[in-house]
Please model this.
Amino acid sequence: MCWPLSVNVCRAKRRRCVALLLGALILAAPGLALTSGDKAASERAALAAYLKDAVPRADNFQDRFDAEVWLLDMSGRLKPFIKDPAARLTFLRGVHREAAAADLPPELVLALIQIESRFDQYAISRVGAQGLMQVMPFWKNEIGRPDDNLTNMDTNLRYGCQILQYYLQREKGHLSRALARYNGSLGKTWYPDLVFRAWRGRWYDGPLPYHGIH
Model:
């Protein structure tokens, strides 16, 4: 399903969907009984291919957002996490730009960031995930961009948003499963529940265009 933000975004998304479908058909071909390790490697390769295409293209995305009401509203909600008003507006414009480039609702991205890092762009997890959306640094080498800085706000948002969009496509719009994949806890609901709670409690701005929402 395509939730259009622009003609170009939708066309690009359809191309990615076709590529993913072809990959799935290859994996499902008769006689290819993959082990769990093979499947994990295949999925990682597919995501790497998606990012290799999506991350550079996002650099050229033109921010067309002019809804000052949204910025003012979200700035007030973000105040407990980022005290400086100018820093809040810069951050929110970045979130909206990268969310739009990945065809994601920015409120969902805000909820995910709240759970992942509490808006600390320099956060590092015990397993090495970095930045606002806690992106694993190995993805930089996987897509041939080893010099990318994941503590840079825009870079981290670009990676994180595109990864989440990939998992949404992988799960056919089932948000709970996509979030669980993002966290590496597929089959469990504790992480999606945390994100949903944050979204409803602080960032809700209308229904999300997905299913599988608790």
